[in-house]
Design goal:
- The structure is a homodimer of 352-residue chains.
- By secondary structure, chain A is an alpha/beta fold.
- Chain A has two domains: 149 residues, NAD(P)-binding Rossmann-like Domain (Rossmann fold), CATH 3.40.50.720; 186 residues, Dihydrodipicolinate Reductase, domain 2 (2-Layer Sandwich), CATH 3.30.360.10.
- Chain A is built from eight helices and 15 strands.
- In chain A, strands 3-4-2-1-5-6-7 form a seven-stranded mixed β-sheet, with helices on both faces.
- In chain A, helix 3 packs parallel to helix 5 and helix 3 packs across helix 8.
- At the A-B interface, strand 8, helix 4, strand 9, strand 10 and strand 12 of A face strand 9, helix 4, strand 10, strand 11 and strand 13 of B.
- Chains A, B: It holds the Pfam family Semialdhyde_dh.
- Chains A, B: Catalyzes the NADPH-dependent formation of L-aspartate-semialdehyde (L-ASA) by the reductive dephosphorylation of L-aspartyl-4-phosphate.
- Chains A, B: Its EC number is 1.2.1.11.
- Chains A, B: InterPro entries: Asp_semialdehyde_DH, Asp_semialdehyde_DH_beta, NAD(P)-bd_dom_sf, Semialdehyde_DH_NAD-bd, Semialdhyde_DH_dimer_dom.
- Chains A, B: It catalyses: L-aspartate 4-semialdehyde + phosphate + NADP(+) = 4-phospho-L-aspartate + NADPH + H(+).
Chain lengths: 352, 352
């Protein structure tokens, strides 16, 4: 791999695609060749990589020939449609969609937490849900010290989780409302500007939406605790690109806030942001455009002797998506030279 | 009292003051005389009551002479400064500030929950904190059926909680950001538009802010459960005037969501808003300007066999403040003809 990696970005024109381009450049990922793939509607668009213009191509069955690494961020349906082709072409796919995350044959990886899981991959590595990554980054350093017994999460999720179009719509909505006009609702089912609403992903029979179930199931898989007791309420708030979360953690024994603070101050990828004098804790405007997850307001839970309350903000597009994917690619490159195992030729792709 | 009640509104020029004027008119409260009181800076302003212009007066020690009822909503310091004077003048004060809420001699009342508490008043009745009222309205109908063992709340609080000036500032901030300018931060310590931040009320030594502690302590007092296990994370979101809350409730035995739904559908002051087909649940834009607290997304807690998750939105200025105060006044009028007990002449006002 000394010549570098031949990379394809599937979904290059989206919000995460743009961030992937930026991160491959700024992190000096050894890119030998870069192919930008998207839907036929986006083909022909020009994007920049390290100052060089690149043309976006429509994805076809030939797109993955002579590609080593696919960074896929074009939604679940596109990933399901193309991942098998990419694997058969010999590329490793790091998939940002939910398509393969719960597939037992696909590792679901946050490099700071479960890098070892990557060893079992068969051509696809899944990037977890954004809210899940941010919460896990704050919870895992504590969980490693003392297993979490129960977690109760409430999210404050930005427009970026619904893509670039949603971010634009939030701004358009805000301006409409300020001007006394009805806000457009195309990307979102309801007005988000000056409003909040429960996350609009599909509802399950148990009343939880998919976003909430992702957090529960994916955390169990990432932490390797299949019966972790967890619940979440996911809510969209009128913020552009960073998510925040209120996290209540319960342990088997008291967990001193001071110890949690020390662990999080040392945790890679985490910035402890607590200025008690100034009443200053993580905010989306701190996290936007940053790599780290910002954690603070760590306090002993008034309602439970073994509980901790904490608060976090993290960039949904960066650590919540693109950065984690690039970190997985860096890990693959370091550990394995990016080659899938021999088993990669098996049909491993779930295509329900 | 057949001639009606002589009412003074202390803090008439604020956001809650405006709503009190509106509610006294629309609810046909028997107002015989109405005096609008505010700080000297606001004296001389003209406000309307039932189409009639009224001049705002600066509050003085003479202001409460021949007044039966004071509706105070000018903040804790003003309430502490004037409540004793009002009591000594023979008026009953319904105080919207936090000044007297935890005073054991002062009833803290939500008319749908603990109307009986009013019987013990000595001239002051306290109106609870806005987030507390909204949460309690949803939780109490369940608590009455089966005592709550533990409650974990995360709030999504609107700008209105910080007053009319903060609502204006949120709009100004949004416009500034849309125009690429730095947002002004006078009413708030940080930008609220396109951002969220933990509630900026004073922090206690245990790391909780006053807003969170109010919810815990006031709920215990209103429910009459001094050791209720409760925790809260209070967060400001860029919404104009309705608060939302994610509420996790734990009971001693399983509480069927269907039963909770039936109880809340019947609860006075509560509207059950759950359209599972349309993924449509309470939002601030539903609640703004409405009397009821909107509750929905009731689901069995995935993390606890005896847990329930629910979501609510309620108008912070209306049921969270002015409406509850007027309902207390209506209750006093109905039950007691508004007269305080003989004990009212004792010095009952805490003046720390």
């Amino acid at each position: 791999m000394s010549e570098g990696v031949r990379v394809a970005i599937l979904g290059a024109t989206g919000a995460v695609g743009a961030e992937l381009l930026e991160l491959l450049a700024t992190r000096s990922f050894p890119v030998a060749e870069l192919k930008l793939l998207a839907s036929p509607q986006s083909a022909g668009k020009m994007l920049n990589f390290k100052g060089e213009p690149l043309t976006v191509e429509a994805v076809t069955s030939e797109s993955f020939r002579d590609i080593d690494l696919v960074l896929a961020s074009a939604g679940s349906a596109i990933s399901k449609a193309w991942a098998q082709t990419a694997v058969e072409s010999g590329a490793v796919t790091i998939d940002n969609s939910s398509a393969f995350r719960m597939d037992p044959k696909v590792p679901l990886v946050i490099p700071e937490i479960n890098p070892q899981a990557i060893a079992t991959h068969h051509g696809i590595v899944a990037n977890p849900n954004c809210s899940t990554i941010l919460m896990a980054m704050a919870a895992y350093p504590l969980h490693r010290e003392q297993p979490i017994r129960r977690a109760i999460v409430a999210t404050y999720q930005s427009a970026s989780g619904a893509g670039a179009r949603a971010m634009t719509e939030l701004k358009t909505q805000a301006r409409s409302i300020l001007d006394g006009k009805a806000p457009p609702t195309e990307a979102f089912p309801f007005p988000l500007a000056f409003n909040v609403f429960p996350h609009n992903s599909d509802l399950s029979d148990n009343g939880y939406c998919q976003e909430e179930l992702k957090m529960v199931y994916e955390t169990r898989k990432i932490f390797g605790v299949p019966d972790l007791r967890m619940t979440a309420t996911c809510v969209r708030v009128p913020v552009l690109r960073a998510h925040s979360e209120a996290v209540n953690l319960e342990f088997d024994a008291p967990f001193p806030a001071s110890r949690a603070r020390a662990l999080l101050a040392d945790a890679p990828g985490v910035t402890l942001l607590e200025d008690w004098q100034a009443n200053r804790f993580p905010m989306p405007i701190d996290a936007a455009g940053q790599d780290d997850v910002f954690v603070g307001r760590i306090r002993q839970d008034l309602s439970h002797p073994c509980g901790l309350e904490l608060w976090l903000s993290g960039d949904q597009i960066r650590k919540g998506a693109a950065l984690n994917a690039v970190q997985i690619a860096e890990l693959l490159l370091r550990e394995r030279g990016l080659r899938p195992t021999a088993a990669a030729t098996e049909n491993l792709v779930r295509t329900e």
